[in-house]
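Bumping my old thread because nobody answered last time. Still need a sequence for this structure:
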C-alpha cells in the first residue's frame, strides 16, 4: 500500500493511482467528520463496513442499468474504480424531512415529503457546500443543461431502487447524497456520466422502520453512540455480514487494515 501514489486524501477516503490508466484505488479510512470537519473521530471498522456497503449498492445499481465507477473490491478497505472528473455538485435526494431541510425551512423532522426532492449543493468545503439552484449551475458551468437533467433522472432512479432495497430489510431511506463524474471511454471525447464516490451510512439517513432508530452518521453527529454497530446492523440486514455471530463481533469482521 505504501508504494502506491496518493492522488488525493480526503476526510473519509484516500485515492491512490490505479493499476491501469483511467483507474483509481479508493481506500476507506475509519475517520469520521461532521459539521464541515469541525467534529472529528476515528471509528474502528467504519471504513471496512463502508467499503462493503458501497460495493453492495454500486453493484446492484449497476445491475439495474445505472452506470457507476465501481470495478471491483480489492480487499477489506480498498476498491478499484474508474477515474472520473467529479462534477462539483453534491446531489441530495430526500424522501422524509430531516437535517438541513428541517433546519432551513422549519419542516418537522420525520415528515414524509409529498414527493422525492432533489437538491444540489456546491462541493466546496471552504464555502460550507452551499445550496445552489439550476440557474447557478448553468451560469457557472458546473453542469451542462443535459447533464443537469441526467443527474436528476439518475438520482431519482437510484432513490427508487434503494428505497425498495432498504424497505425490504426494514429500513426507511430518509435522504442521501450522491456524487457523479465524467468518464471518457477509450478515445471518445464525449463523456459518460457515472455515479461515483460512495453510498454508505456516512452519506445516507437510514431509520429503522419499526423503532425509528438511526442507523447512520447522525449517531456520530448527535453523539448517540453505537455508530459502527449501527453500520454493521445495516450490513447485516443487507446480507453483507452473513452470520449473526459475525455481526455480534464487528471487530473480527473489521480487523483488516
Ligand atoms: P472529501 O473530499 O469531501 O473529504 P472523501 O474523503 O470521501 O471526501 O474523498 C474522496 C474524494 O474522491 C471526493 O472528493 C470525491 O469527490 C472523489 N472521488 C470519488 N470517486 C471518484 C472517482 N471515481 N474519480 C475521481 N474522484 C473521485
Ligand atoms: N450528506 C453527505 N455529505 C455532505 C452533506 C450531506 O453525505 O457533505 C448527506 C447526509 O448524510 C444526508 C443527506 O446528505 O444523508 C442530506 O444532508 P443534509 O443536507 O440534511 O445535511 P446534514 O444535516 O447531513 O449536514
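Sorry it took so long. Here it is:
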Amino acid at each position: 500500500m505504501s508504494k502506491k501514489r496518493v492522488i488525493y486524501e480526503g476526510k473519509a477516503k484516500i485515492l491512490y493511482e490505479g493499476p491501469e490508466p483511467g483507474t483509481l484505488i479508493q481506500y476507506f479510512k475509519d475517520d469520521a467528520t461532521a459539521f464541515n470537519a469541525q467534529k472529528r473521530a476515528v471509528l474502528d471498522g467504519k471504513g471496512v463496513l463502508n467499503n462493503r456497503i458501497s460495493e453492495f449498492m454500486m453493484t446492484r445499481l449497476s445491475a439495474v442499468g445505472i452506470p457507476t465507477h465501481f470495478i471491483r473490491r480489492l480487499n477489506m478497505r480498498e476498491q478499484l474504480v474508474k477515474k472520473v472528473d467529479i462534477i462539483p455538485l453534491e446531489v441530495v435526494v430526500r424522501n422524509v424531512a430531516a437535517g438541513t431541510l428541517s433546519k432551513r425551512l422549519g419542516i418537522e423532522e420525520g415528515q414524509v415529503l409529498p414527493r422525492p426532492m432533489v437538491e444540489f449543493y456546491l462541493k466546496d468545503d471552504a464555502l460550507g457546500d452551499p445550496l445552489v439552484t439550476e440557474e447557478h449551475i448553468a451560469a457557472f458551468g458546473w453542469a451542462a443543461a443535459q447533464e443537469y437533467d441526467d443527474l436528476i433522472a439518475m438520482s431519482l432512479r437510484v432513490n427508487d431502487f434503494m428505497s425498495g432495497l432498504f424497505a425490504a430489510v426494514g429500513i426507511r431511506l430518509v435522504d442521501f447524497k450522491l456524487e457523479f463524474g465524467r468518464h471518457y471511454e477509450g478515445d471518445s471525447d464525449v463523456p459518460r456520466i457515472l455515479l461515483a464516490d460512495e453510498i454508505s451510512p456516512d452519506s445516507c439517513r437510514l431509520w429503522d422502520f419499526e423503532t425509528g432508530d438511526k442507523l447512520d452518521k447522525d449517531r456520530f453527529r448527535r453523539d448517540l453512540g453505537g455508530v459502527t454497530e449501527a453500520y454493521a446492523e445495516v450490513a447485516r440486514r443487507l446480507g453483507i455480514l452473513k452470520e449473526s455471530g459475525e455481526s455480534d463481533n464487528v471487530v473480527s469482521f473489521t480487523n483488516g487494515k
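Residues 85-208 form a domain with the D-amino Acid Aminotransferase; Chain A, domain 1 fold (CATH 3.30.470.20). Let me know if any region looks off to you.
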